[in-house]
Every structure is written in C-alpha cells, then in structure tokens.
Amino acid sequence: MHDIDMNNEDILAQHRELAEKNEKLLERHGIRAFNVMGAIGSGKTALIEALARRVAGNGVKAGAVAGDVAGNDDQQRFQAAGLPAISLNTGSDCHLDAHLLGHSLEELPLEEIELLFVENVGNLVCPADFPLGTERDLVVISVTEGEDMVRKHPKIFARSDIVVINKVDLADAIGVDPEKPRRDYEGINPNGKVFFTVAPEGEGVEELAEELGLRG
Amino acid sequence: MKTLLEQVEEEELARTEIVHLRLGELKILSKEALSRAYQMITAESLLQGSALEFEDVPVKVCCASCGFSGGVDYDDDAAFHFSTPILSCPRCGGKVEVVQGKELEVRRLTVADEGVGES
User: If you measure CA to CA, which chain B residue comes closest to A128?
Assistant: First the structure.
C-alpha cells in the first residue's frame, strides 16, 4: 500500500464560498444581517419581532428570513409585523445553509431593508456548523427549556458570542434559575455576552439592540 | 472541487483502502454517522470497501490583545461529559480568532499497490 497526498482538500469549501457570496451581496446593499439560532420554541421569532419593532421607531426597516422545516407561520407573523419576509423551508434539513439563504436573498426586496434577521431552523446542533454570510450569530434559549441547555449543547455556545436567555418572567413559575445557564455559558465563553429578555414585552431588548449596534 | 470518486477514476488509482480526513475539534459532526453514510454511498463504486480514518485537529487561536497564538484551555466540568474548548485567550483572557479547529479536509488516500482491476 502507498499514500497519495490530497493537500488537505477542504470538503466544505463550497459552503464557505457561498457564505462569502451572500456576505458580499448584503454588503453591496448596505444590509447588516444576523443569524438567530436556538431551539424550537425558545422565542426566536418573538425576539426578532421585538428587535424589528424597536428599530422601526427610528425609521430603520428590517426584513426577515423564516427558516423552518415546513410551514409559513413565522413568515406570516413577520409580515403581520410589517417586515418583508421570506419563508425558507428546508423540507427535511435541520439547519439553513448559505446556498438556501442565497435563494431567499434573491426573493427579498434588498433595496428596501437595512437589517436582515435570519431565523435558523429550531435546533442547537447543526446550525452552528454552517456559515451563512451573516455578520453575527446569536443563540436564543428560554428558561422553559430547563437550566441545562448550555451543558447539553456546549459547542454552539462556545462558538456564539451572544446568548439571549428568554422568557425570564416565567423562571420562578417553573422553578428554573436563569443564572445557571449564564454561569455555564460564561465558563466556556468568557468573552460572550448574555442578555435576559421577555421578548413580547420588549424587556431586555434595548440592551441587546445596543450590543448589536442597532439604532432604536 | 473534484469528488474523491472522480479523482480515483481519473488517476486510475488502485483500490483505495483508507481515506484520511482531518476533522476540526469544533466541527459538529458524528464520525460514526459519516462513516456509515460513506459506506452506503460508496457501495458498488471504485471506493467500495474503503474506510474513513479521522485525524482530530485541536483548536488553535490567535489573540488580538496580547498576540498569543496556540491551543486553548478546556472546561473539564464533568457535567458536560466532554472537555469543551474555551474560546478565549488562555494567556490574557481576551477575545480570540479561531485559526484551527473547524476543518473537514481530505488529507491523503491509502491505496493498494496493484493497478485498477488487478485485485
């Protein structure tokens, strides 16, 4: 037997190239884009609605891509909130990738928006591995998922520099201490930032918007 | 990028025994699932019977604050069940850029010495 050198050929190079293409397209249109990841039911949609409401007060128009395996429920919510929105159904995949997002960007009225929120498929595993070409990633968890979400999915938290712990108004009722996931996160990502929010009420959203550099 | 199969076909390589991959520590990828999928998709192809072997590539970072370059500390809290890399500077605690640990690359192939069809 003998060995043939393959020069460390990058199997995922195409994903990165497509992500760079998205990034350049967004840059050309002066759009800042955020990849919003988190489990099913963590409040990603409500948080995006709250952030969009906040910047709308200052005349900043946001758009959204609603990533889901199926259905257009989130797209309808975004549109009802006045956001141009595209439903991006993966059919079976548990995450968005740059190729899929590229097609959504073809359909969005990019000339009308300054911000784009990309709501990833509800999942705390795969989305972290697929670059989309967005400026920053944030992970949303909620106290209703329990205290141990960070411990159960350390890699996505190690790689994301903003974590939103949502639904903190329910913490006492369900007996969850939101400080526990915060401590877990700070243990593996000491430079990351944590925000406690109640998205529908806009609680904590101002601080998050400030961190994201959004005018509100 | 050529697929492995195209490369093996074009270069008329002898039977491939092992495909050596480099897998970054931060990649969220199951070696077992990938190996199983590989066996299925390579069945009845020139790559049939070859196996994937993984070289684990540890995280390396660069610190913009103090100039540190190298490996990171790990959170060995037993509750995580894994040793989790801490993505901050192990020297000054500053923010870092990950320069290694996200790879999924084909490093080399181990092939049989005889020509195609001679096995």
Answer: B28
